[in-house]
Design goal:
This protein is α+β, with helices and mostly antiparallel strands. It has 2 helices and 4 strands, in the order ααββββ. It starts with a helix and ends with a strand.
């Protein structure tokens, strides 16, 4: 009977419990990774939506004539002139050259800088904003429009 017990093959209860504990730690790590992945995918979706909204508005501004009032640099004096005026926005959009345009939870503005980066051009910066859990997230896109030659 002793030889039968000594030759038995299998796992003891302690070995099984240790294996289950290691497996549980691994599963918890994978679950944490999944939660983080879902959160980051949601963040990426919001950035993509903001970029798409901004690109759509920018594409609607491309065919606008160079001297149209829509593309006027309204902040072309003082400290807000030219390049520094490209980033002008406030919560109401009053500092922006145009806007706001709202869609879902996004707000869009655009600013124009005359003769930047060279004479005879306009830089159009479309700024899309979203308040994401108390933090303001901004996506901006630039386009340089060349005037009549």
């Amino acid at each position: 009977m002793n030889t039968l017990l000594n030759n038995s093959k299998g796992f003891t209860l302690v070995e099984v419990l240790i294996a289950l504990a290691i497996f549980a730690v691994g599963i918890l790590g994978a679950a944490t990774m999944q939660i983080s992945s879902i959160s980051e995918n949601s963040h990426a979706l919001r950035i993509t939506e903001a970029s798409t909204f901004g690109a759509s508005e920018l594409e609607s501004l491309i065919p606008v004539p160079f001297d149209d009032v829509t593309l006027a640099d309204n902040s072309n004096t003082g400290a807000n002139a030219g390049v520094t005026g490209l980033d002008n926005t406030d919560q109401t959009g009053q500092l922006a050259d145009s806007g706001p345009v709202a869609q879902d939870s996004y707000t869009l503005f655009w600013n124009v800088a005359d003769d930047y980066p060279v004479l005879g051009t306009k830089t159009i910066r479309v700024i899309t904003r979203r308040n994401d859990k108390g933090t303001l997230k901004v996506v901006s896109q630039d386009f340089i429009k060349v005037g009549p030659i």
